[in-house]
Each structure stands twice: as C-alpha cells, then as structure tokens.
From TrEMBL:
The organism of origin for this protein: Chitinophaga caeni
Signal sequence coordinates: 1-25
Sequence segments annotated as region (Disordered): 110-132
Entry keyword set: Signal
Protein name: Uncharacterized protein
The UniProt record lists the keyword Signal: yes
Length: 132
C-alpha cells in the first residue's frame, strides 16, 4: 500500500512539474508587434510591416489589415533569409509571404475574409488587428 501511495505522489509531482514548465515556456515566448503600412499594396510583402510598440486603439475597426501580434517563430531570422534566398531586408520582418495552410499569411487572409475581429491569440500566439 505504501508503494502505491508513493508511486501516485511521484506521478502527481512529475505532472505538476511538466505543467509549470509549459506555463513558464509560454510566458517566456517573445512577442512582436508589427503595423502594416497604409501605403502598402500587398499584405504578403514583409517590407510593408514595421515593428513598433503597439496600442490596439490605433486599429479602431473591422475590414482592412492594421497590425499583427506574433511570436518569434513568425519572424524571419538571418539564417532563414539566407537559406530561402529572401531579401536581406526581410530579417526581423513577419513571415506574411507564407500563405500555406497554418502559416502566418494564411492566418491574415482568413481573418480578413471573416466578418468581425477575433482578438484572441490562436494556438501560435497570433492576433490580427483590422481597421476600416
């Protein structure tokens, strides 16, 4: 009986440790705020995005792309730019040119084609803000 109680306690401690580790990892992810240039003509061109400290009151309505809140994995690194032969100016820019299923560009297109705004981060920590 003592063995069963100890085993159960060990499992509970291990489970709690894993849960706390996952929460800490989620808190430590860096997020980035990018505003889309109103002069931009192509939402899939990273050149039209500027990383800024973002206030959601800058994006008052629904309709056109305004801004993004994304995690590190949605931002081009130097290694990715070189490996994919992208313009060097894309380092540190959002991967909006990737419109494959589940990618950032597809998320933006889906949000813009759906009425209303969904300001709840998706499973990848992404939020798309819209304006008129």
């Amino acid at each position: 009986m003592k063995f069963n109680v100890l085993a159960i306690c060990a499992i509970l401690v291990a489970t709690a440790t894993v849960c706390v580790s996952q929460v800490d990892a989620a808190k430590n992810r860096a997020s980035h705020s990018f505003v889309y240039s109103t002069s931009g003509t192509d939402i899939t061109d990273p050149a039209f995005y500027t990383e800024v400290s973002f206030d959601d009151s800058d994006c008052p309505n629904d309709g056109a792309l305004c801004a993004l809140i994304i995690e590190d994995n949605d931002v081009y690194t130097l290694a990715e730019v070189i490996a994919q032969s992208k313009p060097m100016s894309w380092v540190g820019k959002p991967k909006v040119d990737d419109v494959s299923t589940g990618a950032l560009g597809a998320k933006i297109q889906n949000e813009l084609s759906t009425p209303g705004e969904n300001l709840t981060p998706d499973g990848n920590g992404r939020v798309v803000y819209e304006r008129d």
